[in-house]
Each structure stands twice: as C-alpha cells, then as structure tokens.
Amino acid sequence: MAETNQNGWAVELEDVSIHYVKQPVLETLSWRIRQGNVAVVLGPNGCGKSTLLRAVTAYGHYSTGTIRVLGETLGQVDVHSLRRRIGVVDPQLLPLLDSGITARELVATGFRAILTTYFAPPTSDELAAADQILAEAGLADRTNQVFQSMSSGQKTRVWLARALVHAPDLLVLDEPTADLDLLARERLLATLQAMVQRRRELSVLMVTHHLEDILPITSQVMLLRAGQVVAEGSPERVLTSNLITRTFDCPAEVRQHDQRWHLHVSPSQWNQLI
Predict the structure, then answer these.
(1) What is the distance between the alpha carbons of residues 214 and 207, in angstroms, rounded to a whole number?
(2) Would you give the distance in Å from CA 190 to the centre of its chain?
(3) 26 forms bridges with which residues in the sheet?
(4) Which of 52, 58, 134, 240 is the most interior residue, by most CB within 10 Å?
(5) What is the pTM of this model?
(6) Taking the chain (274 residues) in consecutive chunks of 10 residues, what is each chunk's mean pLDDT?
C-alpha cells in the first residue's frame, strides 16, 4: 500500500549539483514532482538524465544540494528501506541477471529489491503475485519463459511488472523504450499508462529523449541540456518548438495530436545539421 507524504511532494531537488572528478554533470538543479503526478525529464544523450535518476534512487552520489524522496532526505535515511518504496525500470540492468531466471522469478525479486533468487528464493505468495501482475502486463502466457529468451518488448514489460509488484510509492523509468520497434514501444506505453492509472497514488518519473514517449497523462516536464534546466512546467507550456529546438540544438517543429506529442524536422533544415 502506498504511503502518503505529508508535504505532498514525491521528489524534491534543491540546488543539486553532481560532479565527476571536478567535471560538472548537473549544475544547481531545483525541481519538485507532486505526489501522484507523472513527470518526464526530456533531453539529448549525455545531458545528465540517467545521472539524475541514479541520484534520486540513491544508487548514485550528488555533490551539493538536497534531495528528498518520498519525504525522506537522502543522507539521513536508510537507503535500503527507501528503495523498497521505489520501483525501477532500467533495461541496462540485464547483464546482472541470473542466466536461467524465468519471468515470474524475476518479477518476484522486486519484493526484495535484488536481481537474483539464489540467496532468497521467492515464496509461493510472491510467485502468485508475480503471475498476477504479469497478466496485467499482458504476459500471462509467458510467466515460466526464461527471461533471456523473450523479445525486447516483452522484457521491458517484465521489468515494469517487477517494478510494480511490491506496490511502490514511486516508479522510475530510464529510457524504457530504447531499442524497441514501433509495435513494442506502443504496447509498452499503453501498458504503462493503464497500470499507472490503476494506481492513483503512484508517482512516476521517466527520462527519455523522445517526445513520442510522453504519456497523455503526463503532468510535468523538465527539459535538460548539458546538465542545466532549459524549462520546466506542464507539457503544454514546455513542449514548444522554440524550447525543444534550444534543448536539442536542432531546428524542430513540435506537434500535438490526439494527446500525443511529435517532433518534425524539415529536410529543408538538414543543411544546418551537416
């Protein structure tokens, strides 16, 4: 069951900077995500999006400033306890998995925030819960399939099921549509929106570099470029042609149709990119 934060914020960043060997990655970033909102960080590769996620989930450091997650201040809280309130979808964790782990076994590891069943085999109740949420993710017929043998789209939906099986308060997604084809991407986004809408108290933070990944239910967007905030606010306020052009350094036209956002670059502008 999700816990309610008295201050109403799922994530609070106050003047956060992150440096690696004196090289700035993020500079004096301040942003707040309201509890129950879907928030997106949008920006080009290398702008600091994934670094920010690692800091928020307490898997990475930050140099200065204050980060509060689910009402708890990082540096003053047991991070292992906090991580049990966070669900993470990060396909980059794939190399860390047991080679023969099945979909239901992987999902069940979400109860312990680990990636193996070797030291703590899942209970029958945990496996039953894994089967139930895999069905919700459209994978009822894949529960006993070896995870490594699944398609990229199926794997990402298994990651989503694992992230939500323990009823977290915050869901964090790091470029979840990377390497997916058109059908797999749309199926993932449809599944994600449906699962989030069934969990009204759940807060969501997703990073991406594609406007097409932004769900219709998104409430907040932050544009990030070279470790600095270009703009933040509602999608309607932030997703403009001018601001997207500044963020990606690319002459772009932003279009909205049927609650989805799209980016168009005219071939007449290609000479500017060569």
Answers:
(1) 9
(2) 15
(3) 18
(4) 52
(5) 0.93
(6) 68 94 88 97 94 91 94 93 91 70 93 78 95 98 95 95 96 94 97 97 96 97 96 97 97 96 94 88
